[in-house]
Specification:
Chain lengths: 246, 372
Amino acid sequence: MQEIVIKTNKLTKRFGDFIAADQITFDVSKGEIFGFLGANGAGKTTAMRMLCGLSLPSSGEATIAGFDIYKQTEEIKKNIGYMSQKFSLYEDLTILENIRFFGGIYGLSNAQLKYKSEELLTELGLEKEAKKLVGSLPLGWKQKLSFSVAIIHEPKIVFLDEPTGGVDPLTRRQFWDLIYKASDKGITIFVTTHYMDEAEYCNRISIMVDGKIEALDSPANLKKIFQSESMDDVFYQLARGAKRSD
Amino acid sequence: MRIIGFLLRKEFSQIFRNKSILALIIVMPVMQLIILPLAADYEVKNINLAVIDNDHSTYSQRLISKITASGYFKLAGYNASFKDAFALIESDKADLILEIPQHFEKNLIRENKQQVFIAVNAINGTKANLGGAYLAGILRNYNADLRLQLISPSKVDPLPVIEITSSNWFNAYMNYRVFMVPGILAILVTMIGGFLSALNIVKEKEVGTIEQINVTPIKKHHFILGKLIPFWVLGNVVFTVGLLVSWLIYGIIPVGNLLVLYGFIWVYLLAILGFGLLISTYCETQQQAMFIMFFFMMIFILMGGLFTSIDAMPPWAQLIAKFNPATYLIEVMRMVILKGSHLRDVLPHLGKVFLFAIVLNTWAVINYKKTT
């Protein structure tokens, strides 16, 4: 039996009358690549923000890396990495400064910082650009850098909110190579995406419609259940019934 | 401590990379200190006076030349009738009308008594009041001269006269600039500190980088300290530049101990930066923070005793002034720079500002929420 690193039970978030996330229940095992799908406005980001300890749930329970989502948000934060939809490294700092800053506030030692930043720059092939301002990089590079910074402290889980939005297919491919590498190291990947080819790369996916999880299984099983040729079709069948969108 | 080191390094890199802001921080106060004290002057000069001389005598001429020679008045018109002179007031060309009646000279000499009429345009209250007072002063002076001329001193009943002689302390020549420069410097430090800190966290919210910070296990007070310290250093730089400017340009050298002055600024900066940070924890956009800060700045400036004496304010306004940290800085600046007050003289002020610092910063740390 695999170790469970994310466990939620009827997790709900209300904003006034609006139920953004409605009784979400699922488990994610260690090392898994878990795809979190849904139309715009389905509640993916809200759910993810709760799991990261950025937003308190209205009701329900959840543990992340064994820590309670209400009481131990700071403990959770030591064990996770997060890459938001919006690019959020400092554009007016250089690549190296960003790496050192985030590594530093995660408590890496100087030796670790030196080693990690060299490793990261080599892996991304950015050795020559280390002293360039992050703001001057193309989007694809920014996203890859952002991901690498999010896992610099070797967290148990990393949450990726539409990490490949607006990125060309080649860079997306490279991005997923990075994800696989991280997964091989035992980091659990929790990723939202709108690209169905990316959904196929996941071990399991869930599809959210109007704040609820409507389907949860491996891509192959989902296609079987919905008698579809492609993930695209599965998604259409589920999302067509959605009442809200943005 | 190590975490704060990383935060400081990040903030300073960002500050030094933003050359335009850096230039503004240094150039703006210098410019303002050079320009503002010259313009913000209480002495009323260039009062426009319209004269109606119905007497056309030597005495009336002498009075008019005495008035114009004083340097405070400009002859805006020499009119034949009150109606003409009033037209000048209506068109804002004159502030005062002096009407000299017929037989001014004759009555003065024969009856030893005469009246003149002064009409004041009171729309600009300060100008009108002071103008009227100056004019009355000149008339009194003129009167005394006349007595000496007309009547030989021996004949005069020794009128009991109380003559007032005064000596001005701490600002011997009543130089208005000496009074204004420390106050303006106080406001500059307040504005730069307040705006920089108010906009900073909000900017991180707008750009989205705060999300990346909030998802780390960083402690709230570390984060706030990481924001506070760089601006505290900048505030000290601005203050030092300001002191240098007031020395080089206005020749103002603090009479009191510089250490007392800096000690007060150190605590004061904590208070005002805490206030800025507090505002930024409540705002979502830089625009909101800007407007709120501006609102408070207006109050700080106008109700801090910079231009108008707090003692002259109505009780409710004095109460507001008590909750205005700038009040204490302006007062202490003037006390230490002009009067040479000692630490024990400014201790009550220091205590209050310290309290502001504690309350505002604690509030900011509490209100900064990593989890919403």
